[in-house]
Write a sequence for this structure.
């Protein structure tokens, strides 16, 4: 398949139809990967990966994925590039476009990725900004499809911080028409413009009550209360104890509800070990699915 968009910055660039196709393609690649690891869809292609923040899953899944598709990656730390000495994002984007076939960037400011995409002639993928994490969303919906076989008539309960992962997840809900209830403390809501736009296609409810949010939920999801870009040492006090996903909260969701977390988790803060290691948790499938869904993405973006 070939996506219409050149870049993936928020998740909203992909149409609903494309999103659903991409998820099915990801599942197909995962199945094929069991027998044929090296499907050469990106032979001799090069992906540059710019990191301003740490990463385990994003880096390793993109590197492994490119290799399995016949291509390779160049890992760049932003503070070792001339950008750290003042070279503009525009000049960096134009230079890289002369060498590589695609760029993944994990940075603080989302505007950096927008600039990069504007000036790069090759596809740009957001590997996490302060505002969005669309690659996570693809893996999340792939995991939901594997476990629940459908998207419509499902309810996701997002508990905790209305952060970058949550913003892109909301776009994913809009593409798949999955209902979502987002429970956050006051002041930690997701981007209201994202909520407004996505509400045109699906039901998005905001609440400050985690217990009401998980009622009848098919999927309970959370993320760290202290994202990389946050700095307030007292931030977790806004969330604890009520926004922790523990066994007592999980019991209020449907009996067959699954627990999801993009990882890395701060155990016994946003989620207890009993839940993340428990029978309802699908976090390791979710982490593995970063590989398969990004292979589908890379080979559909025209890299
Ligand atoms: N979920 C995720 O993006 O993990 P990393 O920060 O390890 O890449
Ligand atoms: N919200 C987290 C996600 C990490 C993958 C962060 O931004 O640090």
């Amino acid at each position: 398949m070939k996506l219409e968009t050149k870049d993936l910055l928020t998740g909203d660039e992909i149409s609903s139809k494309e999103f659903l196709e991409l998820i099915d393609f990801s599942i197909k690649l995962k199945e094929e990967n069991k027998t044929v690891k090296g499907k050469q869809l990106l032979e001799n292609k090069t992906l540059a990966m710019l990191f301003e923040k740490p990463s385990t899953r994003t880096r390793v899944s993109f590197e492994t994925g490119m290799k399995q598709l016949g291509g390779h990656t160049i890992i760049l730390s932003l503070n070792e590039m001339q950008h750290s000495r003042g070279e503009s994002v525009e000049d960096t984007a134009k230079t890289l476009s002369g060498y590589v076939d695609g760029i993944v960037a994990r940075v603080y400011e989302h505007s950096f990725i927008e600039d990069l995409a504007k000036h790069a002639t090759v596809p740009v993928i957001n590997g996490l900004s302060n505002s969005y994490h669309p690659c996570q969303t693809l893996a999340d919906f792939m995991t939901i499809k594997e476990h629940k076989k459908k998207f419509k008539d499902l309810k996701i309960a997002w508990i905790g911080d209305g952060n970058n992962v949550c913003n892109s997840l909301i776009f994913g809900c809009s593409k798949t028409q999955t209902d979502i209830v987002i429970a956050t403390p006051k002041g930690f809501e997701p981007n209201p413009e994202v909520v407004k736009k996505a509400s045109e296609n699906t039901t998005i409810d905001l609440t400050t009550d985690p217990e009401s949010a998980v009622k009848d939920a098919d999927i309970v999801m959370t993320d760290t209360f202290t994202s990389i870009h946050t700095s307030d040492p007292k931030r977790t006090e806004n969330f604890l104890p009520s926004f922790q996903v523990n066994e007592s909260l999980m019991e209020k969701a449907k009996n067959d509800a699954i627990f999801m977390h993009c990882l890395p988790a701060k155990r016994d803060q946003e989620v207890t070990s009993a839940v993340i290691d428990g029978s309802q948790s699908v976090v390791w499938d979710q982490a593995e699915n970063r590989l398969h869904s990004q292979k589908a993405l890379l080979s559909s973006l025209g890299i």
The chain has a mean pLDDT of 97. The domain at 136-287 is CATH 3.40.50.1370 (Rossmann fold). Residues 258 and 279 are 9 Å apart (CA to CA).
